[in-house]
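Key idea: predict the complex, not the pieces.
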Amino acid sequence: MRVQLFATCLVDSLFPEVGEAVIEVLARAGAEAWFPVGQTCCGQPALNAGLRPEARSLAIHTLDVFAGEEPVVVPSGSCTDMIRHRFPELLSDDPRLLKRARELASRTYEFSEFLVDQLLIADFNASSHLVIGYHPSCHLLRGLGVDRQPSRLLEGVAGASTVRLDSECCGFGGLFSIEMPEISTEMLRRTLDRIEVAGAELVVGCDVSCLMQIEGGLRRSGSPVRCAHLAQVLAGREGGLR
Amino acid sequence: MSSMFVQRAHAAIADAQLQRLLDQNYEARQRAREAALHGLQDPTELRRRARAIRQQVVAKLEAYSNQFESRLRENGVQVHRASDGPEANRLIVEIAQRHGAELVAKSKSMVTEEIGLNEALEAAGIRPVETDLGEFIVQLRAEKPSHILTPALHLSTAQVAESFRGRLGAEVGDDVEQINAAARAHLREVFLKAPVGLSGVNFGVAETGTLCLVTNEGNGRMVCTVPPVHIAVMGIERLVPSLDDLAVMLRLLPRFATGQKISSYVSLIHGPRHPADPDGPSERHLILVDNGRSKLAGTPLAESLLCIRCGSCLNACPVFREAGGHAYGSVYPGPIGAVVSPGLFGFEQYGNLAQASTLCGACTDACPVGIEIPRLLLEVRASSAPTPTARKLNLYTWLALSPSRFRWAQRLAAIATKALPSRGGWITQLPGPLAAWTGTRDFPPFARRPLRSRVRRKRQQVWPRRPELEPPREAPPAIESAETSEKADLFEQELRALGSEVIRCSESDAPDRIVGELYVLGASRLLAWGQVEPILFTVLQRLTEEGFPVTQPEVPHGAARDEAVRSLGEAEVGLTGAVAALAETGTLVLSTGSRRSLLPSLLPEVHMAIVRSKDIYADLESWLHAGGSQYIAGSSNLTLISGPSRTADIEMTLTVGVHGPRQLVVFLIE
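Result:
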């Protein structure tokens, strides 16, 4: 089976190791992922900033890049939510584009969701000796309703004990993190407290945006705890995001 | 633009006490809501129905408000439409002046906050007194509410006590019970003296012209019962089509607002005092306020009109938890406030509030009618002027529209950021707007080789794998809770959970038990319904024989009224019957009509009620269908009572007996 990988702009530019882990895990699950080179950004930053025409152009760009019938796998709950729910809204004024947006939405999956619900595979013979804190990111949990899938995948990691952290926002919120840094940091501080209380030695999630905020805070506070995308854990690479 | 919000939020973050109060609110309210939802059989379905009901209203706002208006007129309510705040205020001032009112007793109403009614009344020389404990505290301190449901959320017990001592001259310690008692005494005078009572409306029922008021303290009941004139004020969107629809909303509103199954008091009002009623206002007015709502109904923000003002999204919002309500600078703070404020009062002043969100969606999760607040916030952002940082995103979008430009930018970013200060490989100091990030967080370095340059080089070996999991199935239907206990048992259990006493007795024992209880309570005077049923008949006859002072309220119209009402306030115990009871919520249903005064269940410290087990229904819906609707339509003010009067307005400390009875004793006749 061949799938198209929508790596997302953050994974592509900042965390290519996450993308490599995703490709490796998909390969082990029997899916060959290829990287359509035209891909850039889904347009979520523009939409969230209120720049709707710009977001619309990037939505159309993304529709063009991910043409065809192969499933599209995205290692991000937030960007999957953008494609699944926001693209059809953004393009609702044009019946032809709306049809294409709905078609793309129907074959776009978040990484953990694709493994568990589509490939029906959850065990990757991964092992870890760490206490893993799973951070349910907001758009993954509330936007897509994906919660059981990452938990199922983490259950299959031998030797690790997993704690699900409370589903409270880490304070990232895209532009919010630099427009209202004080509030964002307070929310982050609470997240770091939850991680400490849970005794997590590694924070795992399905959105590098949130993990970037959390690891940025962990590093600044001098904590030895690091973050990893779920794919990195499944691929046996726990060294952290970078 | 957003600087005012940000400045106030910073001050809030630096205020340790305020943070403690906000944390307390966040944690306790979330827990309470989750627990309350847990008790519902199918909360998802109930919320879906509630959403559909509200959508139906907002889609046909004009038709429903016209229907509502004509039913109200048939019921004898004087209806006034106000297109904006100043018009509404003028109408209210005129009514008050016509009755020579210098004092108005007011229960909590967000729409009157919205239109600045208090200021307008004061300008006309009329003193409005807020009687909801939280609002009273805020008014005493000349502040604004910081939460739509718990206005004094931002104040500690010590601060409130200080204001009571300093501004009210009340001798109270830093103790919620003492503050409560002082407020009760002070405001009781206001209820008895004020010629005009003013309230909001939680829901209007279009088909029947019912005004529904939900309160816990009993002040809402006071202002629509005791003063000779009642003015209700509501936004035109707060309608539901039918009484059945109201029952759906009443299941959700208290659960989402405070985690209660039902609030202590639900008043269902139809018109002024009927000729046979012993009391109640002889004049009832409704001010229907538009103030931008019909216009909003035609915009992409129309969904915000589904809001039932439960305050749940404020309690669930992580940004509200940091910033507090005052930071928003609007009557309506929090997530829904960031949509409604620009929608009703203008984007120029309030559009920036939509930035105060990570779009995490906790608000939608917490909304009884599932308003997609993050989507609406995006609508507001799209219609507001972009922030300076947002404007810089134009460049990013331009880069992202071309894969080759994007790749060049990635390379450039990797080179340009290489020399920046870093620690352990992550950047500690970024320039420009990104400096706001590195103020508190490290930032990852840009990859020298982005993923796109790596994937072309290697080809992955694909491992053929067979599926190992069962395909996901639809969630199994929720198992219905086995309701084995009799309705009477459930009723008793629920009522006891609300802190009320239930005495089970037979028809023949009842009079002895009731008279005995009166002596146990040490009562010297009883306020009672007339002899509307056999037990009351026997009890009243016996008490008369024993020379026990009993008053059956009959409030005269006109000048003699004040003295009569004042004297009624002295009785320690009130005794009533009940037309029905609802097991699910431990609720008594009291109708009005001949010899059924509203006051015995409201003015005394103890309310005793007689209810027969045959009159217990499973819930509000089943009673409505078993003839309850007729009772509602036939009563000028039918009241649902569940437990004693209560409040948690000060630091969420629950106290009873704030305005209404502090004790409810139910005689359950089998």
